[in-house]
Design a protein that fits this description.
about 20% strand, four-stranded mixed sheet, 10 strands, globular, six-stranded parallel sheet
Length: about 190
């Protein structure tokens, strides 16, 4: 909590409220829950849009709905497999990030159940910093990518040995590491393996 908020709360005689306390309380309540359920709850609690998809067909339908509802016309997508999805739903994409991209359609490394964050690397966003991504980000992942915590994700990254430029993002409350990105919408399509 900022110093200014603390002073105002003292003056108005209101109790101090920790900004991360809600997510911490929820994480504590979900301590014994299944990893996928815990991740989904914490991801949506932080402002993300969670979509469970039983198969690729359902993922295509959900992707198409998101593109239509959000009015997305041009997508940054550097993954050749994901570009095939965009071809099916007839959406324009660029393999390099350009200013006119309405959204990014990417994969991720891991989904961290501990706090509902998503770990990205250069494999997912090339050399771009996450703050440069468009305001709408659609991520596709598999249930098997869910890990308990950051430590477990880092162990797996270390074993893989070739990942660099790691970052993590969460729902819109994270603002993608910059205060200017307060309208970010993060959509997750979670596919069953």
């Amino acid at each position: 909590m900022s110093l200014f908020k603390r002073i105002v709360n003292k003056i108005l005689n209101q109790p101090e409220e920790d900004e991360n306390s809600n997510i911490t309380k929820l994480a504590d309540e979900l301590r014994d829950a299944d990893l996928d359920y815990k991740f989904a709850q914490l991801f949506t609690h932080s402002g993300g849009y969670f979509n469970y998809c039983a198969d690729e067909s359902e993922a295509l339908q959900t992707l198409n709905q998101i593109l239509k509802i959000e009015g997305i016309n041009s997508v940054f997508c550097c993954d050749e497999q994901l570009q095939k999805f965009l071809d099916v739903v007839k959406t324009t994409y660029t393999p390099q990030l350009i200013e006119s991209n309405d959204a990014a359609f990417i994969t991720c490394e891991y989904l961290i159940a501990f706090d509902g964050r998503i770990m990205l690397s250069h494999n997912n966003i090339q050399h771009y910093h996450s703050s440069r991504l468009p305001e709408k980000i659609i991520i596709i992942a598999n249930v098997s990518q869910i890990v308990n915590n950051l430590g477990e994700a880092m162990m797996k990254v270390k074993r893989a040995g070739n990942l660099k430029n790691l970052t993590s993002i969460s729902g819109s409350s994270s603002k993608l590491d910059t205060p200017n990105k307060d309208n970010t919408k993060l959509f997750l399509l979670l596919l069953e393996d």
